[in-house]
């Protein structure tokens, strides 16, 4: 159902370097790369995640209560991706671990302050 999600950025070059390295761990690549936005995914027809300089020219800001959850293939992959995000400059919003019956996740904020997590259910 989700086609793509964009996150605002103040620095497209910095955001691109962060997500190139992080999403490279998932085998994702840039599927669209323009002057004001970049989208990553495993194929142009699968759900995509991107960063964008806001169209209105105002500074990007973080939405309160907004979070993007990214599926992982295992608990071990959640651990690996969460740690990679932190190594790339993300800030901790809740380390990888169990979050209830059958749900395992690690929460972080990217360099612009956008909240994301990697999760595994099972």
Describe the structure.
The protein starts with a strand and ends with a strand. The chain is 21% helix and 38% strand. The mean pLDDT is 96. The chain is α/β, with parallel strands linked by helices. It has a 4-stranded mixed β-sheet with strand order 1-4-3-2, with helices on one face. Strands 5-8-7-6 form a 4-stranded mixed β-sheet, covered by helices on one side. The protein has a single domain (4-54, 67-121), classed as 2,3-Dihydroxybiphenyl 1,2-Dioxygenase, domain 1, CATH 3.10.180.10.
Question: What's the structural blueprint in terms of helices and strands?
Answer:
Blueprint (H helix, E strand, L loop, with lengths): L3 E5 L3 H13 L4 E5 L3 E5 L6 E5 L15 E4 L3 H13 L3 E8 L4 E7 L5 E7 L1
Parallel strand pairs: 1-4, 5-8
Antiparallel strand pairs: 2-3, 3-4, 6-7, 7-8
Main sheet strand line-up: 1-4-3-2
The string of secondary-structure elements, in order, is EHEEEEHEEE
CATH architecture verdict: Roll
How far is the N terminus from the C terminus? Answer: 22 Å
Low-confidence stretches: none
Tally of strands: 8
CATH topology name? 2,3-Dihydroxybiphenyl 1,2-Dioxygenase, domain 1
Radius of gyration, in angstroms, nearest whole number: 14 Å
If you average the pLDDT, what whole number results? 96
Helix content: 10-25%
Overall 3D geometry? Answer: globular
Number of helices: 2
CATH homologous superfamily (4th level) name: 2,3-Dihydroxybiphenyl 1,2-Dioxygenase, domain 1
How would you characterize the largest beta sheet?
A: 4 strands, mixed
The helix/strand class is alpha/beta
* CATH top level assignment: Alpha Beta
Number of domains: 1
Proportion of β residues? 35-45%
């Amino acid at each position: 159902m989700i086609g793509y999600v964009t996150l605002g950025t103040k620095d497209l070059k910095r955001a691109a370097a962060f997500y190139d390295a992080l999403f490279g761990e998932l085998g994702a690549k840039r599927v669209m790369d323009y002057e004001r936005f970049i989208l990553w995914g495993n194929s142009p027809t699968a759900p995509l995640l991107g960063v964008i300089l806001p169209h209105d020219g105002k500074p990007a800001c973080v939405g309160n209560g907004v979070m993007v959850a990214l599926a992982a293939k295992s608990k071990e992959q959640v651990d690996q991706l969460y740690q990679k995000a932190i190594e790339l400059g993300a800030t901790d919003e809740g380390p990888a671990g169990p979050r209830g019956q059958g749900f395992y996740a690690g929460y972080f904020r990217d360099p612009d302050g956008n909240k994301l997590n990697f999760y595994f259910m099972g």
